[in-house]
Amino acid sequence: MSIVYDEAQKTITLHTKNTTYQMQVDRYGFLLHLYYGKTAEGCMDFLLTYYDRGFSGNPYEAGTDKTYSMDSLPQEFPSLGNGDYRTPACIIKNADRTYCSDFRYKSHTIKSGKYALKGLPAVYASDDEAQTLEVLLEDHVTGVKAVLLYGVLPEYDIITRSVKIINSGNGRISVKKLAPACLDMLGGDYDFITFYGRHAMERNCQRLPIGHGVSKIGSTRGSSSHQYNPAVIMAEHETTEDAGGCYAMAFVYSGGFQSEAGKDQYYQTRLLMGFPEEQFAYPLDAGEEFQSPEVIMSYSSDGLAKLSQNLHRCMRTHLCRGKYKEVVRPILLNSWEASYFDFTGESLLKLASEAAELGMEMFVLDDGWFGKRDSELRGLGDWKVNEEKLGCTLGELIEKINAMGMKFGIWIEPEMVNEDSDLYRGHPDWAFVIPGRRPNRSRYQLVLDFSRKEVVDYIYEQICAVLDQGNVEYIKWDMNRSISDVYSATADSQGRVLHDYVLGLYDFLERLVNRYPNILIEGCSGGGGRFDAGMLYYTPQIWCSDNTDPIDRLEIHYGTSFIYPASCVGSHVSASPNHQTARCTTLKTRAVAAMPGTFGYELNLNELSEEEKQEIRQQIKEYKKYAALIQRGLYYRLTNPQTDNQGAWEFVSEDQKEALVQVVGIKKHANMTVDYIKVKGLKENTMYRDTESGRVYNSTALREVGVPKPVLNGEYKAYQWHFVQED
Ligand code: GLA
């Protein structure tokens, strides 16, 4: 049993293979958090301490006991107003206009299987793989209930958390703040690891000590954003890739978010993950309920690599869905950087036939095929194929591409509208515009109000009508601006609109994956602006960044790898000089840098020399050789490209018989010193052969000293070793 209730101690303990999580219902009915860490048996309430602490008040029931204070005790679901002055997980405006919630334990149930969340993405598991704990808390004055949900996947060292607020009172309430995951740590010193960035430079890793006061990251953009990713790690100061304790929280949600970490006055640390407080105020009438998205949590006592591997495994096998989740994805050619808006049907076919000839498996027609979309200025919202531009119907184009032995994929951006479009002229109130204000434009486009069902339904029908015109096997779902000017003409409260928007988005995606189970969907938002665990439930791969520069990608992939599996990282070989940075790199470097992900090309193949084409044919064969290992192998970060001379990473098969080490040099000097790349995850003191050179290596020496990176002249050289255990 992974969830155990001890009646005598009033503890509920969640066990995974290597971790234990424990909570306790205390003498006053508060649900206290006792422990989350390495596997531990017994009751951990000895960790709680009771002292008279000035200005930390006491619940009324404590009578003359000044040593009991909610301000210092670790809590599972802290709320505002009942004596805990730290940052709360929940703020509710009650029907009587007060802001106090006092949640006490009422009951709990333990079930086999993992809970599902209606209308929301969530980790799934079979009944024998997971258990669910539901704890019912109630504020007996307002009648408001909080149902805490815990999903436990023992084999994966994963615990998920979600919360449902039920208004069992009489009047209307408003949920003002909600963080489904809270971790209160009694001792220890921790770092807050977050992933910040900007368009075309996403998920840079930042590690800072958690001090007094609250460090907060988040997004108020209506999407998870390029600026901060909705996943964080809390690690002990000493924790490295290979040793030490660390916790992860990944929000399974694609709207805004906030995560807060801070030390309180007693040097205890609280970590929260949930909705952003700005613009959030979800109304609930009597009898209504609100279900939060979930947070995936994991703990590793063996450092950050293991923590990442836990998350990767869970997301790859229990969050991603559909035909493609475990399948090596087709190698694609995307038309964007090849021709942007400037193409004809003929030029597309020329590109596709070149791609087919080189061994690529799918042709993706990016932006520019619909309405009057010849530039960023117009056309979004008019999902009618521009047959004049294509010189044929979409069906005919697809047939010709299929006849070349290639699959066909297409780009869409359903959530957006240009003012210069028939859709906007017909339905100006469907876009987010506040009456009396001129809206903020971004890339000349406005956002459609997906909180309204009729808007979602209309666009859904338009998109389906396109997809039904031929054998479409892939969609790139884009979202190229952040949301502002939030106003929905039909909403009873504007504080609900951004969440209802995300529910509308998920409803659309759910219908799409059900209607077209054979279509592979790749998520995108100006590259990696909506790279989150929520999207992975619908789109098993996400375009990682609009930046295709292989050297910048080393950092982007590094940051991404802490949370997300390589199987979901969209990455392509593009032109040199690179279109975003003008940096020149070799074709080999571009390919090695693009391999830790779903592989493809995005450049004008017609401009390549015969020699380059031959090299691409080889790269495709090579990627296919390693693709299964890349998709399913255990991922190790071997260097930190933000600070080291090179980016280096490794995939190791679960049986440890095979590994792929890939390295791209960054810094180059005359008379260069040799860098040794320490290889991880292999069997102890075992011989491995590099299949590329035939040379045999000892695994312990590879780990302790490393493989010497050759010193070659020229910048940004790439290297790889494919180690296979000797018989
Ligand atoms: C976004 C995407 C690009 C491309 C363009 C098309 O920026 O990230 O890959 O699809 O839109 O407009």
Protein model, in words:
This protein is an alpha+beta fold. About 20% of the residues lie in helices and about 30% in strands. Strands 6, 7, 8, 9, 12, 13, 15, 16, 20 and 21 form a ten-stranded antiparallel sheet that branches. An eight-stranded parallel barrel has the order 22-23-24-27-28-29-30-31, surrounded by four helices. Strands 32-33-34-39-36-37 form a six-stranded antiparallel sheet. α8 (about 495-515) links the parallel β27 (about 470-475) and β28 (about 520-525). The two termini are about 40 Å apart. The model has no long low-confidence stretch (mean pLDDT about 100). The chain binds alpha-D-galactopyranose. Alpha-D-galactopyranose binds near residues 527 and 546. Alpha-D-galactopyranose binds near residues 478, 480 and 546.
Which class do the helix and strand fractions yield?
Answer: alpha+beta
Quote the CATH topology of the largest domain: Beta-galactosidase, Chain A, domain 5
**Rg:** 26 Å
Give the strand tally: 39
**Count of helices?**
13
Largest beta-sheet characterization: 10 strands, antiparallel
Would you identify the CATH architecture of the largest domain?
Distorted Sandwich
Shape: globular
Please indicate the count of domains.
3
List keywords for this structure.
single chain; 727 residues; alpha+beta; Beta-galactosidase, Chain A, domain 5; TIM Barrel; Immunoglobulin-like; 3 domains; eight-stranded parallel β-barrel; 39 strands; binds alpha-D-galactopyranose
